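As agreed, record passed on underneath.
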Amino acid sequence: MCMTNLRPADKIFVALDYDNMDDALRLADRLGDTIKTMKVGLQLFFKSGPAILDRLHERGFQVFMDCKFHDIPNTVAGASDSVTSHGVYMFNVHVGGGLEMMRRAKQAAVARAQALGIAVPKVIGVTQLTSTAKQVLNEEIGIPGDVQSTVIRYARLAQEAGLDGVVASGHEIEGIRQACGDEFLTVIPGIRPVWAAANDQVRIMTPTDALRAGASYLVIGRAITHADDPRDAALRILEEVQQSEPSEGPHQ
């Protein structure tokens, strides 16, 4: 898909970070005429199972399955096959699992999608979590250097494995685009409009700044889901995103 053809609303994923399906679907229904892609993470999926994917698809939403697969290549290939069979728009794996794991994930997704005659989901590599600061990276995870250089190295590895893009913070977008090109997707969590609190994420950015840096997709959670009026919050963000769209310049 050419990113230049996407509407602002198509570039936003709403993180349904709920512990039950009823609340998640209630929120999705309130946003149904504004944003079309919902992110389903570990908490909601383990509580609701694959039924949440079916219910969202029945309502016309796309799904970004955010379960961050990280296991031996054969196991991840099996997980990729399974999630693809549910018709998700996108899912992710940890780049830290290595080249073979990522290759097998993409290959399994392509094979299952072709067998079912459905669109191949976008397979995205998780580089470093937005909660990871340099001290955590160096002293706890045991990777030397700064976060940005690690993320860019992981992005190159994901591209070599044939993945469609990576998850990273907005602060790494420019470096990833320089290293991997404009067509390599960047999915950016940790997005906060100026009127929302940062909470527990360290490497955050506003929607305007992320899109101007070249982000492909923005993942927004609490700023919408915890708002007094989620639909109004979504519309405010969409207005901000629309105003940030460049008329010319870097490929979006």
The beta strands are 12-15, 37-41, 62-69, 90-94, 122-126, 165-167, 185-188, 217-220. The longest helix spans residues 99-116.
